[in-house]
Amino acid sequence: MTEATDAAPKVGKTAGDGTDKVPAYSWYALGVLVLIYVLNFIDRQILSILANDIKADLGVEDDYLGFLYGTAFAVFYALFGIPLGKLADSWKRVRLMSLGLALWSTMTALSGFAKSATALTVARIGVGVGEATASPSAYSLISDWFPARLRATALAIYSSGLYIGGGISLLIGGLIVENWNAAYPEGGPLGLAGWQAAFLAVGLPGLLLALWVLTLREPVRGAIDGLPTPEDPQPFRGFLRELFQVIPPFTVFGAAARGTGALAMNLLGAAFFAALAWILWRWTGVLEQWLFLGVGYYAVFSWAMGLRARDLPTFRLTWGSPAFLCVILGYGTVAFMAYAASYWGAPYAERALGVDKTDLGWFLGAPAAVAGFLGVILGGRMADYLLERRPEGRVWVIVFGLVTPIPAMWLAYTTDDVVLFYVGAFLAQLLSASALGAAAASSQALVLPRMRGLATATFFLATTLIGLGLGPFMAGYVSATNGDDLSLGVLSTLVAAPIGLILLVAALKLVPQAAGSVVERAREAGEAV
């Protein structure tokens, strides 16, 4: 399969044909997006190096720390990603990213003033809402700046910001905390502890970056694929419609407007997720985790049913596509293990191996940034290379990113040797990172240009509500219920690997045919292409 199957078939000559050069401006704009994503993950991942300090100051346990890093962020990131993904498909994506960057940077800075677990949770929710603007807008912009033949590479370069930001967050956080606490052992200005000062230090620069983002030029949507899409004259109407379809309790009214059958299905879904959340709460004793996830899963269910009624072509190419679902859920299991290992690496090394924060920044964080960068770039290039030779080539890279990190994770979390821990953590990051560009490009290849923002939001539902929402919490819960055994906690997440492998084996067979029939299936569902 060639690049012609990586998007809707082209009409006439486009930048996606042959080997047309990519304009220098596209590479410049991609560089700015990478900076945004670096800051995105600094603000998100810095919680890892601060976890033990927060645990001591606020009197919380590992299960709460897993909830704070994962679920409290993930649910709101995922839910608001849906209407914001719709807005990215209809409004100015550059403006949307700038506003979101300003919001999440402000909420990160406000985390520095938290004096309780509740206040920190609320700030974390705000970070999730703001960050939900970034990737739907960025994925859509990249797909309009780069031709299909380079899209996995460009998305991988963008995604490298994830690993760079996540890695250097340990270095930045460690340096700030140790120097602040050394200078102000009884608390500094405004009574702030070192972990609070770290939140302020990484949050405020985002406000300046938001102004830079506003200078980027908006590309013509779909033009590079020969399918130029006119601007929506009422972009916020779709955003508000999606917002009311995904935020409870308005979801009930949205279902009622579609008829008695839709209302009954919605209420049945609400009852199912409420019962499931109650059972899991009684089983684990952790209310917040399952309350948040129960609301999140119900809201996504409501939205998907509403999408089917409002936009059948988009529903058919995403939720109604076994190929699309196998790709995003298969990658969700990669994220499940990777998020747990990435978040708990620094707290584990501090507790079990006695490493101080500064050393963790230099020997865990900085190498992790390099490993993630190399992994995602090499994985993206390999995905594009394999796609030219095999129609399912990109999916093989996702399989590689699922299976090969397992021995490295096992080494890192069973050894008593600090050097071997660093080696295992480096390899696990390198290998798991290889799957991201391939998974992102695969999901984009299965929809039309006008659907890319919502497809990205749906892709991130898997990485957040499955990977981020469950992986770090499971590791923290297993640790908290087994005598603070973080080794056992992180390794328990490997149970996701067989599930992911089954999904990706199915994707190997389903993706080629689905990618080659995007326009036909959209037309069958009523799309005017």
Automatic annotation (TrEMBL):
PROSITE patterns named among the record's database cross-references: MFS (PS50850)
InterPro entries the UniProt entry points to: MFS, MFS_dom, MFS_spinster-like, MFS_trans_sf
Signal peptide: none
Compartment(s) where it occurs, according to its Swiss-Prot or TrEMBL record: Membrane
Positions of the Major facilitator superfamily (MFS) profile domain: 29-515
Keyword match Plastid: no
A Pfam family it matches: MFS_1
Principal place of residence: membrane
Entry keywords, A to Z: Membrane, Transmembrane, Transmembrane helix, Transport
Transmembrane regions: 25-43, 64-84, 96-114, 155-177, 197-216, 263-283, 289-307, 319-340, 360-383, 395-413, 419-441, 453-474, 486-511
Membrane topology label: Multi-pass membrane protein
Protein name: MFS transporter
